[in-house]
Automatic annotation (TrEMBL):
A Pfam cross-reference name: HTH_30
Protein name: PucR family transcriptional regulator ligand-binding domain-containing protein
Lineage: Bacteria, Bacillati, Actinomycetota, Actinomycetes, Propionibacteriales
InterPro entries noted in UniProt: CdaR-like_regulators, CdaR_GGDEF, PucR_C-HTH_dom, PucR_C-HTH_sf, PucR_dom
Transmembrane regions: none
Residue span(s) of domain Purine catabolism PurC-like: 13-134
Amino acid sequence: MVDVMPGVTLREALELPTFRRAAPEVVAGAAGTGRAIRWVHATERPDVRQLLREGDLLLTMGTGLPGDDDAAGLVSFVDELADVGSAGVVVELGRRWGSALPDALVGACERHGVPLVVLARETRFAALAQEIGERVVDRQLAELREAQRVHETFTELSNELAGPVDVLRAVQRLADAPVVVENAQHRPLDYFAGPDEGDGFLDGWPARSRRVEVAGRTGWDPANGWLVTRLGTTDRSWGRLVIGSPEAPSQRLVAVAERAASALALHRLHDRDRGTLMRRTHLELLTGLGEEPGSDDVRRRCELAGFPVHRRGLTGVVVRGRVGAVPQVDLDEVAATVVRAAHALRLPALVSEVERDLRVLVSTSPGADADDLVDRLAARVLAHHDVVVAAGRTAPDRTGVARTVAEAGQVADAAPQARREQDPDVHRLADLHLRGLLALLGEDERVRLFVERELGPLQEHDRADGSRTDLLAALRALVLHPSSKTEAAASLHLSRAAFYDRLARIESILDADLDDPDVRVSLHVAVVADELFGGRAK
């Protein structure tokens, strides 16, 4: 917890009318004048430890303090002020000291950073205390009113089951500052700019964020000017909320951050519960559309769920986590992102989970560019998750639902698992070429027999040979690097001589000429089909 007291700083207090009439001068500890004053005390007692609290300002004429010849006593007096965290000490000249304070007093205050102010003119301490006290009370009341406003804002958001965007907009409004939500890997998930902010707030974000560690749930990082609040529990933190705060944050801003974190956590919990029920319902509707597309009961249920199917284009989409992705994708998180993205685009969608895939069916109005809408949906999802997105061809009516969903699944099976720079956001049959054709054929028995006929002898050789050679890998390298056998050899970390030796053995086993274009094409198709269907043709 960041503990920042509401109050008036000594720097502000020195500008008050009563203070100004007394001709104040800061003679030591000037760097501490930005410290907040909690309250004001006037005393001539030297033993102030039991009298003062942190943030209290001391007013004195010095009549009770140790004399000029008691440097140790004056230092001990300042030590006590520093120990309790005093906001400073104000000394009126004239009664005890004429025009200057003892060097021991001034030096001790400077060493401890305790502000020391002298008043050149006589003034009523009661008037000073009253004026500062009124300002402190006013500031505290303002803090209370703002705290009430924060409380009412987040209570209303909770009652309305507001989503993350509404919560973050409220934070931006209340904080008047930029707001970022990042995930556990320090990647920004949502961002709302501050009123006077330039374009560089997110520059180098992951690297900067990894260097920021705060103790407890909430902390302030002065280097970046960030107020950081953990999202989730200590053991299961799923991200952080960051609010721009160049100056030390007030209690009100800390309250905003922590109430927002609680609201986001509550929404996440509700979202998971709602998402599980929603996906179960959507799966029933998707199954009904696939099995009984002409059913009036299924149509009515879809319409009740807010998914129009009459005179609409219907496009199947599959969203799948990449194999070997680190960290593995959380399908609940991906589903929630898909739902939010569809809602933001006003795109009706059924979102269901089947065998660790998200199967999505989107409904588009006549004349709408379905591919463009699916691309925009995918872009929003890919901004947050490392997934493969595949789409089938848009069906003009309900009778094509089973076909477009199945096609999306086949395209997802055919899509490369490793992300490549040239890959589109959404994989479609037209992007996959040979892989797309084979995906359409699915696990046709004729494809299995073709692969077995083309590659069977090599597979048998490799199984018998164990790990000593891998002729199938050599063939795969050859067909994937058709223009350069040197590159093919390098991809296997083999010398040209060793690679040529394996090609010769392949030609002998297959009784085929690898330089024959027809043979090359046939073997290329067989290799891709074998990869595509996971080697099930063996």
